[in-house]
UniProtKB/TrEMBL annotation:
Pfam families documented for this protein: CorA (PF01544)
SUPFAM superfamilies xrefs: CorA soluble domain-like (SSF143865), Magnesium transport protein CorA, transmembrane region (SSF144083)
Membrane topology summary: Multi-pass membrane protein
Domain of life: Bacteria
Protein name: Magnesium transporter
Entry's transmembrane regions: 270-293, 299-320
Length: 326
């Protein structure tokens, strides 16, 4: 658990036992970053007067973004994406407790197979800017805005990362000879799943921040434009995901059209073969029963029947050619 006191003089790390004394001062605010949930983090939230439902929401995993408002506090959950394997996108949860003089960011819980450092990307970037003096937030709402903007950028980066694979996939579909359709089709649907996951995260975050902007309780007066801007950022990510998804769906439809066309051509050729061989087979059956006998073969009749078969096959092939079947 890392704690920083932010004032006009800059940001500096502090100890847990200094927190309450600094909050009792006239200016400045504190940022508490909790990488993973612990008993100490729960005790700190209780000391800050957080509601029991808020603490429970921080303790357990939230699969969709949420917003809860309490007197003097707003609780928000957002998700940053991490691209996994075979079309899976990890949801990296970040809980924010925005108060008048304190901001608490709680990471996780996360998949046990992941390293904890992947959850700290957004907060580490904001902390580096804060420590270097490249940003001077006026309060917890400003800092929460910076952290959440970093989450929106992570979601946008996911969409761009997926989009980089689409031109190569489109080229492969257009030049494919359909030798292994199952493998290529599976790849396309896994990519579509990644896009839909990113799109869902952005859409849900947009709804949460649009509600916060409408509630008017994100921060002091004059700060609601930040909530509206965050809603707009997530809406733009959702729009990017929609555009890339539509492009991918068009590629999938092109691929499916090529497969269906190939199957139709194959069926037409099979129909030609059946049309040519069926009358020949019927005539051969009759010929075998009534013309060829055990004692001798009627060569003249055999020659006539074979010529008739060839003529029938030729006429059927010519007709099929005129129909464009082959």
């Amino acid at each position: 658990m890392e704690i920083r006191f932010v004032s006009t003089a800059g940001a500096r790390p502090i100890r847990l036992d200094e927190l309450e004394a600094l909050l009792a001062g006239p200016d400045g605010f504190c940022w508490v970053d909790v990488p993973s949930w612990t008993d100490d983090a729960e005790a700190l939230l209780l000391r800050l007067g957080c509601h029991a439902r808020l603490i429970e929401a921080c303790r357990r995993r939230n699969y969709v973004p949420v917003v809860h408002t309490y007197p003097g506090q707003v609780f928000v959950t957002v998700h940053a994406p991490l691209l996994g394997g075979k079309g899976h996108v990890h949801l990296l949860e970040l809980d924010l407790v925005v108060g008048e003089r304190v901001l608490v960011t709680v990471h996780g819980p996360i998949n046990p197979d992941l390293d904890l450092s992947v959850c700290l990307t957004e907060t580490d970037a904001v902390r580096a800017r804060l420590d270097a003096g490249r940003m001077s937030p006026d309060g917890p709402a400003d800092l929460a805005y910076a952290v959440t903007s970093a989450v929106a950028r992570s979601q946008s980066a996911l969409i761009h990362q997926i989009a980089e694979r689409l031109p190569g996939l489109e080229k492969e579909v257009m030049t494919s000879r359909l030798r292994s359709p199952e493998e290529l089709l599976e790849r396309m649907f896994l990519i579509r799943h990644e896009l839909m996951t990113g799109r869902t995260m952005a859409a849900q975050c947009h709804e949460v921040w649009a509600r916060i902007a409408g509630l008017g309780r994100f921060a002091r007066e004059g700060r609601l434009d930040q909530a509206a801007d965050l809603a707009d950022q997530f809406a733009r990510v959702r729009s990017l995901a929609d555009g890339e998804t539509m492009f991918l769906v068009a590629v999938i439809e092109l691929y499916q059209t090529k497969v269906h066309t190939k199957m139709t051509v194959a069926m037409e050729r099979l129909a030609v073969i059946a049309a040519v061989t069926l009358p020949v087979t019927a005539l051969a059956s009759i010929y075998g029963m009534n013309v060829i006998v055990n004692d001798e073969t009627h060569w003249r009749s055999l020659l006539v029947i074979v010529l008739v078969m060839i003529t029938m096959s030729g006429l059927l092939l010519r007709w099929a050619r005129r129909q464009g079947w082959w």
